[in-house]
Amino acid sequence: MLIDAHAHLDDEAFDGDRESVMKKIREKGMIVINAGSNIETSKFSVELSQKHDFIYACVGIHPHEAAKAGQNYLETLKQLAEYERVLAIGEIGLDYHYDFCDREIQKKVFAEQLELAKELGLPVVVHDREAHRDTLEILQKSGVKKGLMHCYSASLEMAEEFMKIGFYFSFGGTITFKNASRPKQAASKLPLDKILLETDCPYLSPEPRRGKRNDPTEIETIASALAKLRGVSIEEIERATASNVRNLFGRLTLTGGRNR
Ligand code: NI
Questions:
Q1: Has residue 260 got a pLDDT over 50?
Q2: Distance 124 CA to ligand 1 centre (A)
Q3: What is the 187 CA–ligand 1 centroid distance (Å)?
């Protein structure tokens, strides 16, 4: 079974035809883990997971949104995390590429949400863009034991450090891009039992649809790109990544969809 471990079906890019995208996903017999970016999209993620048995949710405040988190955001996230189809706290982390939010605030909101994940015993889904050192250091200090580095873009050496604290890595469209040597290297060299597939849709469509709106069914293209990079069959990628998703997200029961 193919599982998209990181998607944003709540995004306004899907407002015009969300139900037909959902139908397409259902027909493929896939599972999608949808990540919130703020309170509103976290709530929407939970709603999607209640409505569709092939959708699971993560709830969290993205670093771009950290300054707008609001006073009671931790309490709200905690309530949302009580839904059993919420698998993790995410997408949380640091983004020093865009710097849409003051770095000190990003770090504070990241650390607070790690504390919440620890309290709830949930894994985390981490966004790290050009902030590898600080991300690693904050995670090491946090005491969080399990998580996913989504759209992993740091080095193989750093991946060793993330693995020591129980982290997995997901790869998406970037492993099909010509110029993306670092993600390709990590995707081909990391142990297969640490790798997940993601689309990060509506962003990061794989080649040859780069630049167009992405959706979870593109996970097939990404799975075959990973199979090619590693010189294994697509079936092996499918089997390994599905089992990794189960190992990482303890609450995932895989009751929805078909073909399993
Ligand atoms: Ni994302």
A1: no
A2: 13
A3: 18
Give 70 Cα–ligand 1 centroid separation in angstroms: 21
- Give me the pLDDT at residue 254, please: 63
**What count of residues does the chain have?**
260
Tell how far the Cα of 35 is from the centroid of ligand 1, in angstroms: 7
Query: What spacing in Å lies between the alpha carbon of 91 and ligand 1's midpoint?
Result: 6
Task: Please tell me the distance from the alpha carbon of residue 177 to that of residue 71, in angstroms, as a whole number.
Answer: 40
pLDDT digits (tens, 9 = 90+) for 132-176: 999 999 999 999 999 999 999 999 999 999 999 999 999 999 999
pLDDT tens digits along 81-120: 999 999 999 999 999 999 999 999 999 999 999 999 999 9
Q: How far is the CA of 232 from the centre of ligand 1 (A)?
A: 27
Average pLDDT for 186-190: 97
Assigned CATH topology for domain 3-248 = TIM Barrel (3.20.20)
Please check the confidence at residue 258 and state whether its pLDDT lies above 70: no
Query: What are the tokens at 161?
Result: 């450090």
Q: How far apart are CA 117 and CA 129, in angstroms?
A: 21
**DSSP string spanning 108-155?**
HHHHHHHHHHHHHT--EEEEEES-HHHHHHHHHHHT---EEETT--S-
Would you say the pTM of this structure is higher than 0.70? yes
C-alpha pair distances (Å), 78 with each of 5, 72, 113: 21, 10, 10
State the distance from the centre of ligand 1 to the C-alpha of 211, rounded, in angstroms.
16
Instruction: Calculate how far, in angstroms, residue 58's C-alpha sits from the geometric centre of ligand 1.
Output: 11
